[in-house]
Amino acid sequence: MDDIKEKELQREAADDKLIEAAFKGMLDIYLASPHRKKVDIITKAFNFAKQAHKGVRRLSGEPYIMHPIAVARIAVEEMGLGSTSICAALLHDVVEDTDYTVEDIENIFGEKVAMIVDGLTKISGGIFDDHKSAQAENFKKLLLTMSDDIRVILIKICDRLHNMRTLESQPANKQYKIAGETLYIYAPLANRLGLNKIKTELEDLSFRYEHPEEYAYIKSKLADTQAQRDVLFESFTKPIRAILDDMGLKYEIKARVKSPYSIWNKMQNKHVTFEEIYDILAVRIIYTPKVRSEEINECFKIYVAINQIYKSHPDRLRDWVNHPKANGYQALHVTLMSKQGKWIEVQIRSDHMDEVAEQGFAAHWKYKEGETEVVDDDSELNNWLSTIKEILDDPQPDAMDFLDTIKLNLFANEIFVFTPKGEIKTMPAGCTVLDFAFQIHTFLGSHCIGAKVNHKLVPLSHRLNSGDQVEVLSSNSQHVQASWINFVSTAKAKGKITAILRRNNRELQKRGEQILDDWLVKNELEMTTPVLNKLCDLHEMKNNEALFLAIGKRTILLGDNDLDELRSKKAENTGGGWRKFVPFFSHNDKKDDTKRSFFIVGEGFNKKKPVIINEENISTFVFPQCCHPIPGDDILGYIDNKNRIEIHRRDCAVASKLKTSFGNRILDAKWDMHKVMFFDATVQISGIDRKRMLHDVAEVISDKLDVNIHRVTISSDEGIFNGTIELRVHDRSEVRIIMDELRKIEDIKEVLQIL
Questions:
Q1: 139 lies in the same domain as 230
Q2: Three-state SS string across 340-368, please?
Q3: Bridge partners of 284?
Q4: Residue 63 domain-assigned?
Q5: Per the domain annotation, does 474 fall within a domain?
Q6: Residues 558 and 696 placed together within one structural domain of the fold
Q7: Does 97 qualify as catalytic in the annotation?
Q8: At 73, which CATH number?
Q9: Reduced to 3 DSSP states, what percent helix, strand and coil does the chain have, rounded to the nearest 5?
Q10: How many CB atoms are closer than 10 A to CB 357?
Q11: Number of domains in the chain
Q12: Is 451 part of any domain?
């Protein structure tokens, strides 16, 4: 017993040493910052949190207090926040994880710290039923608290960053949930707040856990090509340094290497290999202006000077200096042709612009640590916060719809559009004429019939580009149409259209409800929930309101078929069945639809263990048609509303939303296939047309590789051919081999995988 006690004391002593060293490291960074030195209150918060979390450990085994210290360190070191934020970061889990209340925090540390801790607790806490998305609800709370104090969301991002840095200790299903959530919400949020370094790290960490092999491959390629980039950087920047020295500028030139996630993303979106990505290296010129008021002029003087050395790409000049991004980012981007024949992007920014680029809005926010708070007035930030309020004012019943709205409006790239009078308006990329009309005024949007874009007549659905001048055309005879909701993208337009349609539809719904009630009474039936659910399933309606509306509009006419179904005692599922989820095995492997039985997740199911898919059980899983996973793909499982397990590719767009909205239903999934079954895969080829091209393609696939071609479609136009080849393969590695062999065929210029 004495030995056990002795070991416990030694462990406690080691823990205390570790904790004190971590706290001192964070405090030293704070003392080196320009903030007023409020060491006493920070030390008090540390001691309070240390006592509150005493004896608790993280999954990694380290004392729990190490997490709040790490979050506080990120807040001061990587965001430049002050003592109020540090105290809130140290205390951020106390209310949620211990018996202390927000009132206790307020009494000891004051109203401001308590309010931030309360905001962070609300984001983490909450109990929701299975039909709501806990994460979407939490995210709503996050946005609401942001309006009260922006530091709530900043500390939440610090918390998420540390959780991502220590994700290794979590089981795989939790890793996919947290990584997916981070990529879908927190990385874009960090980007929107201008926290570029943090955004990049969040993306890379998510990528590392979701696609470990691809991450390792790109890291390895970056390491292998480092020496080449160093030589290119030195030779490219040497004449630039000489000309900047002649100008008498104080400057710094840095190499910016594209992040693994950005590289992978570009490889996926552009269907290119690592070697084909030309902008892995960029050059950053950071100058200190001689006169602060001449900051922008000096930026353009540098641009003119380096244009004397290298030729610039005419379509790749990005002026974020005169038109800053919505997150405050300012820089001049120009792409220059190096002497080695490679395009290199050069980013020119002042020291102040660089600070904003690294810390975003956080570089603007100044807090007077004490009873009062002073925040710099920032119209872009205020506009953004008002957009958040607009989204929250229009309640989205569906968690996925809400997250889509957030993605479209808060995280989209911006474009700049001009009114007929030359006023500039910032809009999300991909917005339409109708979005723009609603942005100006609800009445104008409601009666919009089209627009003149750059003096040319266009329809409502026309998508706008940066620099467009837009004159909205309206007519009093025009009214809001239900189809409009399909092409608008901004929260304001969607909200107003929905509200107007809802108002117009209310009367039709009432009429439909009355028609249905009369019909049921006539046929000696009652309007009960099972009856309504049966009719909704039968007519593929989302809910009762949609059913009433369709009956009111006479698009559904109730008849004998409905009556037969309602009186039927069969408990069969009429909600579309599993035919929507036919897996894509070869014809020989398909099971009889009517006899197929699914694996059902029971009460004692262990979500931490991976789901293993093999030849024997593959037909018991659901394979939705959104991403067509085949053996070799990185996959995950999702427990659907019927307790069946859907299998998705980890980078599937639908899976991204599921990870964010229903993280507690995500499972790890792995293949255990033995090249017995066949799966469909499609490859797209293009190149210069010639005789025997089809023969050469068939010879490589069928004869050389012994792969079964299911279908070939090829068309040729003016000497250029495009084609798709549908194959039967055992796994993804076979597809890669086929693509590598096809690339070797003379005159084939591009080989892409269609997912």
A1: no
A2: CCCEEEEEEEEHHHHHHHHHHHHHCCCCC
A3: 254, 347
A4: yes
A5: no
A6: no
A7: yes
A8: 1.10.3210.10
A9: 50, 15, 30
A10: 24
A11: 4
A12: no
Same domain, 163 and 223: no
624: closest CA among 637, 613, 611? 637
Q: Alpha-carbon distance 188 to 360, whole Å?
A: 13
Q: Are residues 115 and 262 in the same domain?
A: no
In angstroms, the CA 755 to CA 267 distance is 13
Whether residue 231 is found in the same domain as residue 101 = no
**CA–CA dist 307, 529 (Å, integer):** 72
Query: How many CB atoms neighbour CB 6 within 10 A?
Result: 10
| More reliable by pLDDT, 274 or 125 | 274
Query: Which amino acid is it at 217?
Result: Y
**DSSP assignment, residue 600?**
B
- Structure tokens given for 395: 């309640």
Catalytic residue among 15, 77, 97, 414: 97
563-572 long-range contacts, CB within 8 A, separation 24+? 563/523, 565/534, 565/538, 566/525, 566/531, 566/534, 566/535
Given this model, what pLDDT does residue 577 score?
34
Higher pLDDT pick, 410 / 682: 682
Residues of the chain with pLDDT > 90: what percent? 32
Verify that 161 and 39 share a domain, yes or no.
Answer: yes
* Contact call for residues 610 and 670 (beta carbons, < 8 A): yes
State the maximum Cα–Cα separation within the chain, in Å, rounded to a whole number: 95
Tell me the residue length of the chain.
755
Residue 548 has pLDDT above 70, yes or no: yes
DSSP code for 184:
I
CATH at residue 258: 3.30.460.10
746 is catalytic: no
- Domain end marker among 567, 585, 604: 567
Angle (CA) 405 410 411, round 5°: 105
Last residue of a domain, one of 169, 186, 208: 169
Q: What is the DSSP string of 652-702?
A: -HHHHHHHHH-GGGEEEEEE---S-S-EEEEEEEEEE--TTHHHHHHIIII
Q: Are 51 and 144 in the same domain?
A: yes
Q: Which domain holds residue 537?
A: 499-567
- Residue partners of 323: CB distance under 8 A and separation at least 6: 416, 424
Pairing verdict, β 250-257 and 679-688: unpaired
Q: What pTM did the predictor assign?
A: 0.72
**Average pLDDT, integer, range 5-20:** 82
Distances (CA, A) of 163 to 80, 213, 476: 20, 22, 55
Residue 377 above 50 pLDDT?
A: no
Catalytic hit among 15, 62, 77, 96: 96
| Angle, vertex CA 199, rays to CA 193 and CA 202, nearest 5 | 140
Q: Tell me: the pLDDT tens digits for 128-166?
A: 333 344 555 666 666 666 656 778 888 989 999 999 999
Same domain? For 33 and 135 the reply is yes
Q: Are 637 and 645 in contact (CB under 8 A)?
A: yes
In single-letter form, the type of residue at position 326 comes to A
Q: Determine the 3-state secondary structure of 189 from DSSP.
A: helix
Asked whether residue 174 is assigned to any structural domain, the reply reads no
